[in-house]
Design a protein that fits this description.
Elements: H1 22-32, E1 41-44, E2 52-57, E3 62-67, H2 80-90, E4 100-104, E5 114-118, H3 137-155, H4 173-188, H5 197-205, E6 214-216, E7 225-228, E8 231-238, E9 245-247, H6 249-258, H7 267-271, H8 285-296, H9 304-326, H10 338-356
Antiparallel strand pairs: 1-2, 2-3, 3-5, 4-5, 6-9, 7-8
Helix pairs in contact: 3-8, 4-9, 6-9, 9-10
Length: 359
């Protein structure tokens, strides 16, 4: 099937307070890329919870600019240079990465460091597919398989060959993740959420003996994929690499599964869905695990550690957001009931732990 241009992901009006200095930016861009022609049109994408993403349209080019939000330090979780270098290194060996064009460390241009890449025009499957994109059950299954195959392809990248072997510490990743997210939860805890001590102790006691280190995305979801408008089962792009690192691929899958809401989940889970994993033809979480493990030739016998970790990590992310709301650092009403979501995610963790029969 072919989708219309209307189903392609579109940018909207630039949010108040997040405007770019258009004339100065255009002058800098045309110095770096003299082939650019015409007046630059700027719009902004609403998706994404952290870095600000803009579309820059010229007469002969369609570009994306990414910058950290205001008030953040570049070398924290919003390191634009790192994000740029990862994608640039991956591009020759992983085609779904956008083409990197420019990185600018000079904060005087727009008030922050930033990078510019080519825009991949396509469909981004958010909570629901666009209205004019209708996939059959068979096509939905194909999309699901293609998404998993894309993740598998990333996990099979030769990091030495790609020049990415010094990107992060690598070995000991699992221990660092369990300790790091446990510490973050402790710092963000409020009176109305569980202590989490039992879950954290279980994760610490049940870390797998073996870990394989590879390139991991750490935010691999359907709403970070770009689909081909002429064939929406075909994935042409993977976006949002800010959390990418050298890590354990099974933890990457566990993190992905935390967001994977299937059709027969309870009402609370279904209310949190932000990608179309509920559609008829999509794999269940168990089918995802079986498919991935078979393709990667690893045992799927006990995946509980990775599932519990993914849910716990998501609970920490939700609690960090709620902590800001609870302490008046944001008044976004969407965050008001995140404490309830944290309680629910911990309940799911405890249920999985009980089912695993591992002490």
């Amino acid at each position: 099937m072919t989708a219309s241009n209307r189903s392609e992901d579109q940018a909207g009006q630039v949010r108040s307070g997040e405007e770019l200095p258009v004339a100065q930016l255009q002058q800098w861009l045309q110095q770096q890329l003299p082939e650019l022609s015409g007046e630059m049109q700027v719009s902004q994408y609403s998706g994404g919870a952290s870095n600000w993403t803009y579309r820059l349209q010229f007469a002969n080019a369609d570009l994306i600019l990414r910058r950290p939000p205001a008030g953040t330090k570049a070398k924290s979780a919003h390191d634009m240079g790192r994000e740029y270098r990862i994608q640039k290194a991956l591009k020759p060996v992983f085609a779904a990465v956008p083409e990197m064009l420019l990185y600018c460390q000079d904060e005087s241009i727009i008030g922050a460091e930033f990078y510019v890449m080519e825009r991949i025009a396509g469909i981004i499957p958010r909570k629901n597919m666009p209205r004019d994109v209708t996939l059959s059950e068979q096509q939905t299954r194909q999309l699901c398989q293609n998404a998993l195959d894309t993740l598998i392809q990333l996990h099979q990248v030769d990091i030495e060959q790609a020049g990415l072997s010094d990107l992060a510490k690598g070995a000991g990743y699992t221990q660092r993740q369990v300790s790091g997210w446990s510490e973050r939860y402790g710092k963000a805890k409020t009176w109305n959420v569980p202590s989490g001590k039992g879950i954290m102790a279980w994760l610490q006691a049940n870390m797998p003996n073996r870990e394989r280190i590879c390139m991991t995305h750490n935010d691999f979801r359907f709403d970070n994929l770009v689909l081909d408008p002429s064939d929406p089962t075909h994935i042409i792009g993977v976006l949002d690499w800010e959390l990418a690192t050298l890590g354990d691929p099974l933890m990457d899958v566990g993190n992905m599964l935390a967001y994977w809401i299937q059709a027969d989940d309870d009402a609370v889970a279904r209310s949190t869905r932000r990608q179309p994993t509920h559609l008829s033809g999509m794999f269940t979480r168990k089918q995802v695990i079986d498919y991935y493990c078979k393709a990667m030739n690893v045992s799927a016998r006990d995946f509980s550690f990775y599932e519990v970790f993914g849910l716990f990590r998501l609970s920490v992310i939700a609690q960090q957001i709620y902590y800001r709301y609870h302490h008046g650092q944001t008044n976004n009403p969407a965050f008001k009931n995140f404490w309830f979501l944290v309680n629910y995610l911990h309940w799911r963790c405890r249920r999985l732990i009980k089912q695993s029969k591992r002490i």
